[in-house]
Amino acid sequence: MDVERFKTIEGRVERTIKIERSEFIATLSYAETDEDARTFISEISKKYKDATHNCPAYRILTVNGIVEFSSDAGEPSGTAGVPMLNVLRREGLLNVAVVVTRYFGGVKLGIRGLIEAYSRSVEEVVRYAKELGQIIVKKRAYKQKLKIDFPSYGKKMQQLAYMGVNILDISYDEHYAYVEVLTESSLDLPEVIETAEVYVRE
Length: 202
Fold this sequence. Notes:
Layout: E1 5-9, E2 12-19, E3 22-30, H1 34-47, E4 53-62, E5 65-70, H2 81-90, E6 96-103, H3 110-131, E7 135-149, H4 150-163, E8 166-172, E9 176-183, E10 192-201
Antiparallel strand pairs: 1-7, 2-3, 3-6, 4-5, 4-6, 7-9, 7-10, 8-9
Helix pairs in contact: 2-3
């Protein structure tokens, strides 16, 4: 999956709304991996274990593409998880997980009412995260390690500075310097011994 940049959340945000006496608490969090998302969902479900429902959804960018998950968690089929996921899709958010916790207030909302309530809960928490400046853009970059012999070291470091790369770390052994860099485009140099694709804040 070739994703150049994407929107995500920094940290975690919670927002509560009331609809027909039911309380809906939406918690939106950054999640780097599928496992992070599941850990977050489990944590929120434990935090609100006395709730009527804890409905999750997430979208994670992996090397094989975008992994999506949602669950109605006991609500009628199709009324919670997919509507929540659709908001994340519409907002173009990736590496995010959301749980909407519902405390039933005694008034049944019906199928359409539930779809609207769960959608609105996620819309509200995303809007609130935007207000707080926590919706950010991440762009693709390359983390690379170069192995440079000492006779070439000075000249090579000058070249890297001229290219505008960000030097993260330098270590040495008897014969070589190992330089870790972060670049916008992958360096095609004979000294490169490791390359990893990463996403950094724009």
